[in-house]
Amino acid sequence: MKNIVLSAVFLFMSAIVTAQGAFDKFENNESVASVIVSKKMFEMMSKVKADAKDKEAQQFMNVIKKLDNLKVFMTSNAKTANDMKATVSSYLKSNPLEELMRMNDSGRQVKIYVKSGANENIIKELLMYIEDPTSKDKQAIVMSLTGTFYLDEISSITEKLNLPGGNELKKAAKK
Amino acid sequence: MKYLIFLFTFVLLSCSNEPTLQKYFVENSESADFFSLDIAPSILKTDSLTLTNEEKAALDAFKKMNILAFKKDAINDDKYQSEITKVNTILKNEKYESLIKFGTNANGAAIYVTGETDKIDEFIILAKQTESGFAIIRVLGDTMDVNHVMTLFQLIQKSNIDMEQLKPLQQFMK
What we know:
heterodimer, A: alpha+beta, 6 helices, 30% strand, globular, B: alpha+beta, six-stranded antiparallel beta sheet, two-stranded antiparallel ribbon, 33% strand
């Protein structure tokens, strides 16, 4: 038990120092729409009293507690999309994440990378890159999520929050 | 009189030069480009309701709401840019913790808080739209927590809202 607690603390600490700042430059880009949720928000949301009878809400609250930061950047501009792609690959060079999944569906490319924690099932960081030159308003999407969570927990969250790539995450979780 | 001046300088000196939202509100609430409105908890007419203890606590924690809005027109684009930059600079101070941000650089909204997770002093909502301007809403309270806020929202839905307090807002929107 003590070990679990210790490793949880350790994971928590290391999640804080995980670099997520690489994509912050897109926040002020004219052609980028973004969603940024801070640790404080997750912390506060987890304090909301959920209806004890509502199993789904309870589960949602449980996952919320495990999240640190969520950042989503979307662009409709081809040039910015290229920049995002370059940023993702340079980020992966300096922060080695494992490729979890790669999908290509008639031009739409989805890549999911993860950084595992104490064991393979625990994820500390999830990075998703979606590229779709055929889409008008979503040429490229970068989503970065940090915390200490299981993959299957996240697919339920992305679905609920209506985040991009929810289907792909679901598939990845089933593997 | 002398005493007053002395007091005034003393107050000025003791204030740090750091810009805060409070100062920004005070400086601009009288300005022609801005619109400001203060809302008291009495906007919620709860007399006819029997409040639960939770609701009472939530109302108790809520002190007031201040709104400051900048209305953009055809000629004040420069001013809009400089004012929104000022606001963003103020909110960069670590005192203001960002909760959530969404939208693009031009149009979007963000929520900030000050205080600790269980003892929130202030919620700040910033909404901007390049075409129409921006608005800052401050919800001030005394050791608020998330559940207070949730309860308050529920209360707003079921209580009558005192429209008199919102009249200036309606006029501004016209």
